[in-house]
Amino acid sequence: MSTTDQTTPSPGTGPAANEQTRGGLKKVVAASMAGTVVEWYEFFLFATASTLVFGPLFFVDTGNPLDGIIKAFLVYAVGFIARPLGGIVFGHYGDKYGRKHLLQVAIVLVGATTFLMGCLPTFHQVGYLAPALLVFLRFAQGFAVGGEWGGAVLLVAEHSPNKERGFWASWPQAAVPLGNLLATVVLLVLSRTLSDEQFLSWGWRVGFWLSVVIVAVGYYIRTHVTDAAIFKETQQEIIEAKGAAYGVAEVFRRYPRGVFGAMGLRFAENILYYIVVTFSITYLSTQLKMNTSNILLLLLVGHVVHAIVVPLVGRLSDKAGRRPVYATGAALGIVWAFAAFPLFNTRNEWIILGTIVVGLVIHAFMYAGQPAIMAEMFPTRMRYSGVSLGYQVTSIIAGSLAPIIATTLLRQFDSWVPISIYISIACLITLFAVITLRETRGISLQSVDDADRRRLDEERAAHHGA
Question: Per-residue pLDDT tens for 348-371?
Answer without folding.
Answer: 999 999 999 999 999 999 999 999
